[in-house]
Structures are given as C-alpha cells and as structure tokens.
Amino acid sequence: MKIKIGTRGSKLALWQAYYIEDKLKADGIETEIVIIETKGDKILDRALSKIGSKGVFTEELEDQLRSGEIDIAVHSAKDLQSELADDLELIAFTEREKIADVLVSFNKNLSLGSGESFVVGTSSTRRVAMLRHYYPHIKIVDMRGNLQTRLRKLEEGQCDALLLAYAGVHRMGYHEMIAQELLTTQFTPPVGQGCVAIEAAKSLSEEKRAAIRNLINDDVTEKCLIAERAYLRKLQGGCSIPSFGWCVAEEKNGELALNMTSGIISLDGKMIVKKNESKSAAEAEQLGETLAEKVLRSGGAEILEGIRNNIS
Ligand SMILES: NCc1[nH]cc(CCC(=O)O)c1CC(=O)O
C-alpha cells in the first residue's frame, strides 16, 4: 500500500506532512509527499479577511483528493472550514499539543501585562480583538505571511513581538524566542488550534482509510474537535471571524466528559461573549451546537452581524 500525502509548501505545512509521513512509515507503509500551492499561498498582499472566500488554503488540495492525485491532505485543524463538501471528510486528528498563544520576541523581557507599550504583529482578527480588549495600551500592526516571513519582519523591526500559536512556534523550532505564554482564560484558542487533521475523499479505499485512522487518530482529541467544529458550524463563522472554542476532555467515573469554553469577540475588543458547558463525549456534537446557541442568544448574534458588516 502506498499513501500519497498532499500538503501546502510552507515550512509549517511540511513539518506537519513529515510528521504524518513518519507515523505511516513506522508501520511499513510506503508514502509520497506531494506539494500543492494554494491561492492563500500566492496572494500575500491582501488581508486574509479581504480575500474572504472560503477555502483559500484548501481548494487546490481538495481538487486533488477528488481526482485521486493524493490520498490524504494534511492540515492544521485550525485552518479548516467548519463545513466540508459532501464528498470529503476528516478521517483523523492527531493528539493535540499545547494550545496556548505565545508572545514571540528577541526581547524575552516583554510582557503584555507589564503596562509598557510596544508593537505586536498579528493578522488574526481574534488576537487583534483580544489584545484590544485585555491590553489596550499595546499597538498592533497587521502581519501576514508564513512564520518565516513574520519572523523576518520582526527582525527588521516592523514590530517588537509577534503573537502566534505555541504549536507552530514549537514545530518550527523557535521555542527559545517565546517571551510569554498567554493565559487561556484571556486568549482562549480558536477551534482546532494545536491539532493536525487528515482530510480525505469519501471514495478513498476502506483499507487506506482504516490504516490511516489506526495510526494517526487520537480518540480523545477527535471528540474535542467534533465539539469544537460543531460550534463553528452552528455559529456560521469562517476563519476570519474572531470566535474561539476550546474543548477539554476528562475521565470522570470511567467515562469521558467534555468541557468546552467558547465565544466571540467584536473586532474592536469592546464586546465579548464567552460561555462554558459540559457534556459526555457521546454528545460532542450537541455540546458544540448548544454552546453556539447560547453564545448567539447572549449577544453573539449582534457581534457577528457587526463583524460581517465591517468585513464585507
Ligand atoms: N493561521 C496560521 C496557522 N495555522 C496553524 C498555525 C499553528 C499551528 C496550529 O495552531 O495548529 C498557524 C500559525 C499561528 O496561528 O500562529
């Protein structure tokens, strides 16, 4: 059996693809990595929220899944749309690593809470809004591009620090530049952060599908991701909406219990809705949906409408 692994060409994407490849190879499966450039990789001069359309980082990969050019596509779970086309599915989720956001800088003494004002580069609407909400004295500059591009901009002095996901920083080996790990109570992560997901066409052979699931999937992470993605789907927020959703699993009396915190924040950081709820792992999907309903009912719908008017 040979499994063809499709991936974007960024260093982070390649790290993830090799990570998956290693797990398959360890079981004697033959693999091939196919690098595919997406629209999101090509267009670097516009804010992502302005390119706007769904799937700018996934469309080309999905076309090749359908044609059988590749068997699986490897993604950061965070970058995936909440709804996939009917002929595609997510067949595995890797065990999640630390989900926090981190402040990365050449100056390790920087801290958001110090009261000192400095310039943070980020392009994530969620991070911008949370900075405005919790740390209004911080100046923000828009910073797109892959991790290496952003670090170069940091080096050139376009900002004093970057706000990034620990997972990416760790995978790229920039660990020692972490000045501060942010509190998850403030910077609650977005749906999927820290997890690698495997996408496949439903037409993939059962033999391959089973082998991949068996070697890659972490059952506990999968439950959490099902809840988180149900939240995102019900909220109808794309990846450019500053929503967040983080589900944690815990063994309780021999049963897996899920606890999830999710919400949405206005772009200016002035309004934030955050809700928490628990359910059994068997009700993962309902957990996400219930939370979305709660968030929407408690002011989330108004925030979402404001954001839509602003972005379009
Ligand atoms: N949107 C870019 C992106 N997609 C996945 C990661 C990091 C890895 C992860 O969260 O799994 C990053 C970089 C970042 O947000 O700092």
Molecular structure report:
The chain is an alpha/beta fold and 312 residues long. The chain has three domains: 2-94 and 195-217, Periplasmic binding protein-like II (D-Maltodextrin-Binding Protein, domain 2, 3-Layer(aba) Sandwich); 101-181, Periplasmic binding protein-like II (D-Maltodextrin-Binding Protein, domain 2, 3-Layer(aba) Sandwich); 232-311, Double Stranded RNA Binding Domain (2-Layer Sandwich), CATH 3.30.160.40. It has ten helices and 13 strands. The strands form three sheets. The chain has a five-stranded mixed sheet with strand order 2-1-3-10-4. It has a five-stranded mixed sheet with strand order 7-6-8-5-9, with helices on both faces. Strands 11-12-13 form a three-stranded antiparallel sheet. It is globular, with a radius of gyration of 19 Å. The model has no long low-confidence stretch (mean pLDDT 94). The site of the ligand NCc1[nH]cc(CCC(=O)O)c1CC(=O)O has 9 residues, from strand 8 and helix 7. This is Porphobilinogen deaminase. Tetrapolymerization of the monopyrrole PBG into the hydroxymethylbilane pre-uroporphyrinogen in several discrete steps. Belongs to the HMBS family. InterPro entries: HemC, Porphobilin_deaminase_N, Porphobilinogen_deaminase_C, Porphobilinogen_deaminase_C_sf.
Give a short summary of the structure:
By secondary structure, this protein is an alpha/beta fold.
